[in-house]
Amino acid sequence: MSVGIIGYGAFIPRRRIKLEEIAKVWGADAASYQRGLQLHEKSVPGKDEDTITMSVEAGRRALDRAGGLDPARIGAVYVGSESHPYAVKPSGTVVAEALGITPQVHIADLEFACKAGTEGMFLAQSLVKAGEVEYALGIGADTSQGAPGDALEYSAAAGAAAFLFGSDTERILAEVVATYSWTTDTPDFWRRAYMHYPRHGSRFTGEPAYFRHIMSSAQGILDQTGLKPQDFAHAIFHQPNGKFPIRVGKRLGFTTAQLETGWLSPWLGNTYSGASPMGLTAVLDIARPGDLVLITSFGSGAGSDSFVFRVTDRITQVQDLAPITRVQLDNEKIYVDYGTYAKLRGKIRMGE
Amino acid sequence: MREVAIIGVGMVECGELWEKSLRTIWAEAAVAALEDAGVDAVDHITVGCMSPGLFVGQEHLASLLADELGMAGVAATRVESACASGGLALRAGIAEVASGLSDVVLVSGVEKMTDVDGADATYALGSAADQEWEGFHGITFPGLYAMMARSHMAHHGTTSRQLAAVAAKNHANGLLNPHAQFHIKVSIDDVLASTMVADPLHLLDCSPITDGAAAVVLMPLAKAKDLAGRRTVVKITGSGMATDTIALANREDLARLRGVELAAERAYKMAGKGPGDIHVAEVHDCFTIAEIMATEALGFFAPGDGGPAAEGGRTSLGGKMPVNTSGGLKAKGHPVGATGVAQVVEIATQLRGKAGQRQVNGATVGLTQNMGGSGGSSIVHILEVE
Question: Which terminus of chain B has a smaller tally of CB atoms within 10 A, N or C?
């Protein structure tokens, strides 16, 4: 039995802030950030946009591409995020209710820094494969936090991607060929309870964390499947900034042409749990039947999930059934200044 | 006083050594020095380390490290004089051997700086400034050295290009040193195009945060000659130390390093040498301006001539007065407590003729200059081939 994606969708808020606008406030050298991190602007969630609302939007779009599937047949919903609106009370119940999936459904919120989204995708496809549920929805969404003035503030962005998995061949648009995960205890980034913003190990988040885990996970799935970089039409690696995914891709032997379709971060920022999943939605938007696609996420703490998908003939019938990721990224943007951004992100705190 | 010789040297490759702890990198350097010396027992261990308390939460360091080496029982001392802690460890070791208190001394320096984030490292380093008069008001070392650079520019017409020439030269040397943290080519224009940190100092005018350790083994010269066989014996003929005001506000002249001048005077006098006798020198280039000011304070160049000398290639390999052949603090790295000892490792390696591609041909007399803070403590040593 083959299992695969039967619907997918992405959501990007319309608001943006330019890197220069943030750098200006903190007296930082914008040109050096642009050069060093290859970042130009990032998405900003509005007052009425959070992990739950973005998950609903992305989930609805996944359903729109699933060929009139009755939502009630979905047996599991996982929402991966590190910015769930509530510390206690699930995001997934609101999402599932809004999408018409409740009440006969397994639901859980997941957290694993930037890889909670792909972890949800893994669980969803696993339950379908095991025959426990008929369909399952995995979502990665974040309104990620960066402390004012911290390096993370230049990248922490908002967005969501949703993937509906099933096993009925006529609906599958991208078959799961293989999965692989590589995880260690590597404390490169964290946020404890009651902290507003995460802390990170600066350069430690690079080589021993991001690069080591992605390299190991991607190489692991290549070894497992016997595939080589040149076999793939597209590859997506977690994109915390513009520079890292290209560097890690090149190190693994991929070319710019294979990497650029899913490379959203220079103009989107880092959408954390949504980052590599949204790279996948951008790839599926233009993928052709038969394409092999590699996606490798990274979550601090630290681990990397890899998937190999094979795109089916059905893809061309669903691509236009919901908003295209790149169109959302490039069009109808609303630029905000730092003051507005600070207000929207809850960075202005009154005396308590 | 007995004459003192260096019989063994060792150090670890400098860098962001996330997989290793302070004790591990220290022990690697210590074992390398003991193996190079061909000795397996010492009477005393000196450890230069600036701030293990703030960087890794560990004090009581000398005993810990003696135990790590399997030598619990031996006498061991940690010394601290900010970034001059390594130079001070050497001077303490010389005093042990010269006085007859000890015969064989393991002199070492170590700093593990990357276990904390940049802000905590900046705070730890900042504790080497005068906290009440400088640190508490918000200034950190790039700002202090920027003021010194501005003063030097105003007095002598030193230019940003001349500062950048120091970084370019030291990175060129670092390319030839396998122990260096950075193996990258940096041009003058790269330095000038890098982010401004504290005007006029760009990012590439500043030395990095580094994990590293270095060690040398000292013994009386007579004993070293017996043990050395056909190996070159390097002796320490001059040791000078001086203090200066820690707070820049108390200095008469911001464009001079008075502490370095005094330490050099004392070391030259003890060795019976002058600046013109030195063939190769390692100086404390925590910022590019520091190398220019140090080369003037050591008498290599007249006040105000340090900048033109660097830009003109006089301090490059092949120049008249090669400075920082190791790559200096800029390219080799600046593990603060280890720096003073690492400088001695480089000069001893040069005098042994074992510096490979960065060898200064025929070098028989070398000098190290190590300083703490913005020059509040300064230590100069002169080494010669026996």
Answer: N
